[in-house]
UniProtKB/TrEMBL annotation, chains A, B, C, D, E, F:
Name of the protein in question: Molybdenum-pterin binding domain protein
Domain spans labelled Mop: 2-68
Alphabetically ordered keywords of this record: Molybdenum
One GO BP annotation of this record: molybdate ion transport
SUPFAM superfamilies given in the database record: MOP-like (SSF50331)
InterPro entries hit by this protein: Mo/tungstate-bd_C_term_dom (IPR008995), Mop_domain (IPR004606), Transp-assoc_OB_typ1 (IPR005116)
Amino acid sequence: MQISARNSFKGVVKKVEPGAVNTEVTLEIAPGIEVVSIITKSSAETLGITEGKEVYAVVKSTDVMVAID
Amino acid sequence: MQISARNSFKGVVKKVEPGAVNTEVTLEIAPGIEVVSIITKSSAETLGITEGKEVYAVVKSTDVMVAID
Amino acid sequence: MQISARNSFKGVVKKVEPGAVNTEVTLEIAPGIEVVSIITKSSAETLGITEGKEVYAVVKSTDVMVAID
Amino acid sequence: MQISARNSFKGVVKKVEPGAVNTEVTLEIAPGIEVVSIITKSSAETLGITEGKEVYAVVKSTDVMVAID
Amino acid sequence: MQISARNSFKGVVKKVEPGAVNTEVTLEIAPGIEVVSIITKSSAETLGITEGKEVYAVVKSTDVMVAID
Amino acid sequence: MQISARNSFKGVVKKVEPGAVNTEVTLEIAPGIEVVSIITKSSAETLGITEGKEVYAVVKSTDVMVAID
């Protein structure tokens, strides 16, 4: 499946922290660059998200803000 | 200002494409890793977004999806 | 690719309206049920979105609100 | 109230799963077409979301992605 | 219609700036407090959004970030 | 840090309700105008969000919908 979301970063799962409804997933997409994602617990289980797994972080371009110092 | 959005990536603006209401901004946050952002044209002007400028890409963790091959 | 977004609806493209930066895409996912999507013009071109094409509408569950009469 | 969100689908609540802060609600908007929504537990209670209730799933068009096989 | 979005602010439209696909709407929800919204041009027309009109700004709680100085 | 999100409202924290992964924060941005935000528990702790603290509610303009009666 190819998706309209413009940002897709290959990475490795570093940490998985399940809550009641949501799970927090931390990925490393480049040395020292980590991305934190909140997905439903159900999705995390369906996708088999576990530490060390190769995954993609996917983000719509309208969800990326830009900031300056 | 420090924000609750968990993801903040330092980068350099590579491309700025203004539309009527929105502007598309492409940043490089690591060698070969580009992030595309859509912000309002007004924000792009206020922040002075131009090619070569050092900026941050900021993303809420609930806006990051996870995908597998 | 399999994604964490919980909602994925197969449909057919009914209308494509390109703007300067964004394109509005209307899909029919069931008889009489249409979904409107705004994606970047660039994504619409990359995915080859044209009338009649079979596509999926994909939505994160946190982006679905519930309303009552 | 009439809202700017372009997508509004009438449906019936099939499942309600409350967590600590959020509640996961599953609706059926057409035979075999289910939509999953995460709303705050407080909203679910205020709206009286229970199995069998007639509700609407509401989604902004910028939150709908398009994917192809 | 009553919606799960937790934030709903009554206000008056101060400015309407239509683009090709999207329209930027500025509302005043309290003296000196303005909210900027981007909705589709089509929604703005359907809702009859014009300067001086009484409207509501509606925001999901997951779309509100918190920042500190 | 200055961010592209167009909406930034100064306020005071009225209530903090932590869940397993997310925390619900209620701010007052003007007399009688409250904003509810869901952020990760981790962000709430990092920012030191407690009742009475002066903070900002930050919202992207694409995340603001408009509704009429």
